[in-house]
Every structure is written in structure tokens, then in C-alpha cells.
# Entry
Amino acid sequence: MRAAPTVFLIDDDRDLRKAMQQTLELAGFTVSPFASAAEALGELTADFAGVVISDIRMPGMDGLTLFRKVLALDPDLPMILVTGHGDIPMAVQAIQDGAYDFIAKPFAADRLVQSARRAEEKRRLVMEIRALRRTAEAASEGLPLIGQTPAMERLRQTLKHIADTDVDVLVAGETGSGKEVVATLLHHWSRRRSGNFVALNCGALPETVIESELFGHEPGAFTGAVKKRIGRIEHASGGTLFLDEIEAMPPATQVKMLRVLEAREITPLGTNLTRPVDIRVVAAAKVDLGDPAERGDFREDLFYRLNVVTLSIPPLRERRDDIPLLFSHFLARAAERFGRDVPAIPSAVRDHLAAHSWPGNVRELSHFAERVALGVEGTLGAAAAAPVSGGATLPERLERYEANILKEALTAHRGDVRETLRALGIPRKTFYDKLQRHGINRTDYVKERGPA
Ligand SMILES: Nc1ncnc2c1ncn2[C@@H]1O[C@H](COP(=O)(O)OP(=O)(O)OP(=O)(O)O)[C@@H](O)[C@H]1O
Ligand SMILES: [Mg+2]
# Structure
């Protein structure tokens, strides 16, 4: 739940300050009273999630000077000025300069509360948009692991925990579930990030090549080995070695790999000399290597050596609540890439999102989003193609983004309030406020259950 809204209240007049504090507290605000502007300013930060209410005439720093300083700190911080008789022209000027409101003394308690409430609502929206923007920026930094379902939250927590240890990690998950994303994060969240992230697909290389790729070779080690070659493992020294499709590693290579993992040294082909390597190994498997039936000829001892920490990424169908979020992300990204406007989501697309089992997991979903962005999926009516990115300001785009997330969550949960709230993780009141603001009618989504 959201904490009580906060007010910084500044007035040098002790009685008036007390009276206003009481009024605001009765209305549900948490009030920090200050007798001087300087004191209040000392405690204000740009991310202050509340409202500032200040008298204008005060000894020391006056309210207008405080206002200018607050403005410099954060132009979106709402400030309400309390003015005496002669100050109204000054207060009007302050409004033009961006103050939120002024209240002329004497005033009714209600007038103060109304103004504070509206200012607080405005501040809350600003803070929400900032939070959204930060999320969007984090996502655009290229290392997203999107997902808010408990399974994904847990995965992210574990990742953070172990990323900066040198422990080897086995990442298990179906195709397209995000194994490579996880491996990349393990690298980027560790102090090895300054070293190389070397990915090797054990299933894609012919058996004859894989060993020289991995271990390197000396000149003349075999026919065609003209020059010395540094292997991938050595190249990854100081960084991370990502062994993708480890289940496809040829048995002979597995034996050598086990030795590398245990001794942390390599022996390039064509030499008996060993060289130490400082690597962290992240391996990815599509099958459950712990299950003898699925393991095939994958060595059990290598499995146990890799299995110090296993991160299992659940398939998308087992975390359906993440689908709307992922889809919005991919849709926005695809639209940007194709230089198109982000389309509203046609109902046929919504139905598909909710009904499909996504065997190709997140990758399949991202490809689907690309087709939707190109308009080749679902029917994009004129109304549906309302522009989001074209010419719109960032706050406008974020507004649309938020509206889309709400619609998708409602779609995914067939308008069920409890489930939608749980998926979105916001308080009920906030949810209804947002629906109203975006003109979304929840009952429209309940009807989509279709004929019984
Ligand atoms: N949680 C996620 N958030 C954002 N993007 C994701 C997420 N999971 C996967 N993706 C994206 O989906 C695509 C597939 O992910 P990735 O390549 O990591 O899957 P994989 O498990 O390695 O698949 P494969 O087994 O087929 O190699 C990538 O484009 C990746 O960026
Ligand atoms: Mg992969």
C-alpha cells in the first residue's frame, strides 16, 4: 500500500502552523512542520514524493525565494503559497512562474485540503511517470530481464546474489525462455564484466572443430593448423565462458571440459603444457540433465560439476502474467525499430496473447510482437492505429504505455479486479484512478469471456 501523502509545511507563525498541520493531518496527510524556509530546504530532495506549502512573508528566507529554490531543485514539485493581504500580485506572478496554487489568508480549512489533495495527486503521477521512465530506460540499456511474476522476481534475486561470485552456473530452460539473457546478466552483474563474454554453441560446431575452438592449438598440432590459435576458453579468461546447448557437447570433449572445470587450466592441442585460466562457466541446457532419461550420453560427473547452482527459467506458459508486460515491451521496441507508431492492440491479438501456449516462449512472443507492429497480425482499424510515438512527448508516450499495460492486464485476467491488481501490484484506488484517467471501462473486458 501507498504511504500517507506528505506535506512540508512552512510558516513562522506558530499558531497558524499548528492549525494548518492539524487540518492536513485530519485529512490524512503526514505533515512535517518547519518554522523557517531554510530548515525545510535543508531536508528537501528532488525525489521528495510530496507537496510543499509555505507562507510567503517570513523572516530570513521568504516563501518566494523558497519557491524559486524548490523550482530549481525539481520543477515538478508542487508548491502552494499562503499569502497575506498585500501579496496577491506576487503570488499571481509565482503561479505564472510555475507555483501550483496560492491560498489567500484567511482561508477555510477545506480550501487548504482541496488544494493539497490535488497537488499531491499531481505529484504522485509525476513520480509514477518517473518510475516508469526509469524502468523503460533500464530496459533500453539492452540488458532487460522483464517479468514481475514471483518466479521471475525470484530468478532476478538469485541472479543478483550469485552474479558476482565465481560459482559456475547451469541455466536450464526451454527454447527461447531467456537462457542467454540470464547468462549475459551473470556476466554484466559481476566484476568480470571488464573481461570477455565468450559464447560457444556446443551443438553448432562439428566434433572435429570443437576442441581446437575450445582449447586452442599450437602450430602443426594437426593438418591445417598453420598458426597458433588461442582457444575460446583462454579468450574468456578474466571473463565468462558461456557454453550454450551443453547437452550437445561430444562425449570426448566432455571429459576434457570436466578437467578444465576442476583444474582451471587448459592444454592446447599439440602441446603437453598447461596454461591456467581464470574463467567462470555458465552453461545452458534445454533438457533436464539431472534426469537420466533426458541426459542421454551427457556425462553424469560433468552434470554434477556444473550443477553447483542451477537456474531454471520457467516456460512462458507457466508465468502468463508476464505476457502483457513482455508484449508491450517488444511491441514498443519493434515499432521504434520499424519507425512505426505503436498500435493499440486489436482484440484478435489480445485473444491470441491470452490463449496461445507459446511453445517458443519469449522469442516467439517477440516475433509475434514484431508482426503486430508491422500490422500483419490481427486487424488494425483506424482507431486501433492511434499514434503513440509519432510526435508525442515522452510523458504522452508513457501515458499510452501505461494505458496499454492496464488494458493488457485486464485482458489477461478477463477483467477480474483481484487478479488484475495482483498482476499489476498497485493499490485498488490507484487502479481505479488510472482506469478513469485513461477512460478504460473494466466491464468491457469481463464480456470478453465469450459465449458460455
Ligand atoms: N525475461 C525477458 N525479458 C526480455 N526479453 C527476453 C526475456 N527472456 C527472453 N527474452 C528475449 O527473447 C529472446 C530469446 O531469449 P534467449 O536467446 O535468451 O533464449 P534462450 O533460452 O537462449 O533460447 P534458445 O534455447 O533457443 O537458445 C531474446 O531476444 C531475448 O532478448
Ligand atoms: Mg540461447
About this structure: Residues 164 and 411 are 39 Å apart (CA to CA).
